[in-house]
Amino acid sequence: MLNKLKEMGKLDETVQALADARETLWINPRGMENTFDETITQKDIDETEARLQRFAPYIKKVFPETRESNGMIESPLKEVPKLQKALSDMLGYTHPGKLLLKCDSHLPVSGSVKARGGIHEVLKFAEEVATEAGALHEQDNYEILAEDRFRKLFSGYSVAVGSTGNLGLSIGIMSAQLGFDVTVHMSADARQWKKDLLRSRGARVIEYPDSYQKAVAEGRKEAAGNPKCHFVDDEGSLDLFLGYATAGRRLERQLTELSVPVDSEHPLFIYIPCGVGGAPGGVTYGIKKVFGENVHCFFAEPTHAPCMVLGMATGLHDGIAVEDIGLDGKTAADGLAVGRASRLVGKTMETLLDGISTIDDYKLYDYLKLLADTEGIYIEPSACATFDTIARVMQNQAYLEQYRLTDKIKTATHILWATGGSMVPEDEMNHYYSLASES
Ligand SMILES: *Cc1c(COP(=O)(O)O)cnc(C)c1O
């Protein structure tokens, strides 16, 4: 395949670094265009937000941890000055401006960014089923969905999903709570505690010794023969994408509450870990819709599973997998262990995303420990993939000059999107912490 890429003129410096599993920062040559996929509009995102609002009374009732937020599944945006100093000391760069941590690691219900997309998709399916049955109307108080008659109705339908873990948790927990018959097809990377937790909530878990793609394929197969089964397609679902994209307006409100300006003099930088691309793609899309060219978005992937940067840098998107360039796809970042990018997201990001960095696995533990030691916040290894991306971007003079950012970084705000971790069992988290190279 490398020879073929060479013939096609696509074996550039970036692709060679990917093939060698070397850390790199790819800058998207089309990142400046800032144009949107016409088929996914702000209206679609607003309708998604309205749906989540309709369900809020139900969520509040069945998940008491959302009582304070009135049934909205949202996470804190925190200032992390000690991390900011420690990161710049560790990586040897100056970091003016402000650093914030978006704690999706602590999202209620399922403890990861997947709660945004996954829960939305299940709720939308439930709304369709209940509405078609004539049992639910938009103006109803959705609290009624907790009644037995709805659980009975939903038990005649099933939901299937393939996952490396966190999407399975979101889909499984939400589906089982509503009363759906839910099956989660888990790849080899999935952690045992996630499977145990899902089974304890009443979800069926099927384990595969293979990759994420295989788990998704099995889920698709199960659903194909059954008209009453809804398959959550992590490789291309628009409902997932829209759930993630609601993060844009919500972030805007949180930044306002913190009195953080975002405009041409105060650029915003977002860094978010990427697996198949759905979560970071949807979040980025929603944020770009709100802040346009004043926000700069970067993804981060493991050096052994850089499927999104491979797809975007070659322009082949889901037409190429990391195995095609000789990589094994294996990584300690279980949430990012994906060999082939989403067929929806890469194309959507072509004219929006600013760049993607790759990171060696062992560093994830160092950053996990650094965050724990400085701020007392614990997140999972996957969620730490972005921690050196800021330094790479700030040290990339060509990029800063091209975007006329050199003078503005003093007044910039950077957000590390912490994508998961609060549900990791304590002994497992202690183990992660112990794997850091310095102590
Ligand atoms: C799933 C996941 C991601 C990436 O989301 P994708 O939609 O797969 O790109 C990042 N971090 C964590 C912790 C995840 O579980």
From TrEMBL:
Key words, A-Z: Lyase, Pyridoxal phosphate
Residues the record lists as N6-(pyridoxal phosphate)lysine modifications: 114
The EC number(s) this enzyme carries: 4.3.1.18
Homology family: Belongs to the serine/threonine dehydratase family. DsdA subfamily.
Listed PANTHER family: D-SERINE DEHYDRATASE (PTHR48078:SF9), THREONINE DEHYDRATASE, MITOCHONDRIAL-RELATED (PTHR48078)
HAMAP family: D_Ser_dehydrat
Name of the protein described by the UniProt record: Probable D-serine dehydratase
Native source organism of the sequence: Aminipila luticellarii
Name of the coding gene: dsdA
